[in-house]
Amino acid sequence: MISMTYLLTAMLTGLGLVATIPAMQAAPPSMHYAWQVLGIDIAQCLSQARQALESQGLEPVQNDATSVAGRSETATAMFVCVENPPATTTVMVVVASDSDEQALALREALKQAF
Question: Hey, what's the signal peptide range on this chain (predicted)?
């Protein structure tokens, strides 16, 4: 199984949120994540994830076979859906923002909308 740290780093790198930045130029973004196992399939997971992102006004920036992401001017969020045979899916939401408070609030809003 892939470690959560590796998975988060890979996702955020793919979204352009991880870069080599001199330490004094910018603080790293605040990140919050949550995950759960549900009795749904990948297609249902991705559909619900898209709807949750849209409900929070996030513009789509990525959509592939297992993930969907959206962005606003101040935050980026991504849902990842991983199938767990025989009949469950692990869904993880990751939110990054320059504001810790905003990242946490958006994560909670996305969890409710999902």
Answer: 1-26
pTM for this predicted structure:
0.76
Asked whether the CA dihedral 59, 76, 6, 90 is positive or negative, the reply is negative
- Strands (E) across 1-114 are located at 30-38, 59-63, 67-71, 75-84, 88-97
State the Cα–Cα distance between residues 34 and 58, nearest whole angstrom. Answer: 18
Helix (H, G, I), strand (E, B) or coil at 60: strand
Q: What is the DSSP string of 80-104?
A: EEEEETTTEEEEEEEEEES-HHHHH
* C-alpha to C-alpha distances, 21 to 4, 26, 40, 78, nearest whole angstrom: 23, 7, 40, 22
pLDDT in tens, 15-25: 555 444 444 56
Q: How far apart are CA 43 and CA 41, in angstroms?
A: 6
8 Å CB contact between 73 and 14 = no
Each residue's pLDDT tens digit, 54-111: 999 999 999 999 999 999 999 999 999 999 988 999 999 999 999 999 999 999 999 9
